[in-house]
Amino acid sequence: MIFITLTKWKTAPKKEMVDQFTKTVEKLEKQGIKMRVYWTLGRYNGVTITEAANEKDLMKILLPFAGLIDTETMVAVPREEAIKLL
Known about the structure:
alpha+beta; Alpha-Beta Plaits
C-alpha cells in the first residue's frame, strides 16, 4: 500500500529530532518499508510517501513521532489501478 502523509512540526525542528527520524527511516528501509521524505514550504512542513504492507505498519512508524509532528495521512492508489476501477 502507498500512503501520503502531510506533516507539520509542533515545535521548531532541532538537529536531534531530524537525526532520530533519519535513523528510523534507515531502519525501516532494512525492513523493506520504503519512505521518501520531502520538506515543503506552505501549510505543511513536509510530505512523506511510504510504501508499507498495511495501515498498522504505518501507524507503528508514525506513533513514536506523535509528540513532534501533526500528521494527515491518505491512502494512494496508483493511476493504472484506479483506472481499472472505472
